[in-house]
Amino acid sequence: MQQIYLAGGCLWGVQEFIKYVPGVLNTVVGRANGTTYSTKTEYDGYAECVCVQFDETVVSVAQLIKHLFEIIDPYSVNQQGHDVGLKYRTGVYSCDSTHLDAAKDYICSRVDAERIAVEVLPLTNFIPSDDEHQHRLTRIPKDQYLCHIPWELLHKYRRTKQE
């Protein structure tokens, strides 16, 4: 099992989307690359993200990044939909340098690479969000209006994974 951290604005939406991608085994929402180890502190530079545990024999890092690009505006800086601020930046983080290389290679292979604002950095810190944020849109679907990702897109892979 491999692990990578994906940031794409609203962490609820990123989790609801990515957890249904074939090969994804588990997801945990949280904060990447902040400076503290608590969710009870002031903003400390973190990016809202989803820790994605995946089976690399089913889905590659490049495929996961491609899926992330389905739900984000890769050109937007510190904003996805109505979520604005540094914590809503897009990014790919990992402790595994091969994951970061694969993400950079994917981005560089695109014709629009020079316009892409997705940061690709080593993971320095991860804090899981409080329980109320874990699988929020599965538990409370009416909160989807708070997310920039349309409901149909959030569940694009749901049927495939359940079969």
TrEMBL record:
Record-annotated active site: 10
Signal peptide boundaries: none
Biological process, per Gene Ontology: cellular response to oxidative stress
Top class in the EC scheme: oxidoreductase
Any Pfam family: PMSR
GO MF assignments: peptide-methionine (S)-S-oxide reductase activity
Catalytic reaction equation(s): L-methionyl-[protein] + [thioredoxin]-disulfide + H2O = L-methionyl-(S)-S-oxide-[protein] + [thioredoxin]-dithiol; [thioredoxin]-disulfide + L-methionine + H2O = L-methionine (S)-S-oxide + [thioredoxin]-dithiol
Function as written in the Swiss-Prot or TrEMBL entry: Has an important function as a repair enzyme for proteins that have been inactivated by oxidation. Catalyzes the reversible oxidation-reduction of methionine sulfoxide in proteins to methionine.
Annotated family: Belongs to the MsrA Met sulfoxide reductase family.
Protein's name according to its UniProt entry: Peptide methionine sulfoxide reductase MsrA
Organism (species): Vibrio ziniensis
The encoding gene: msrA
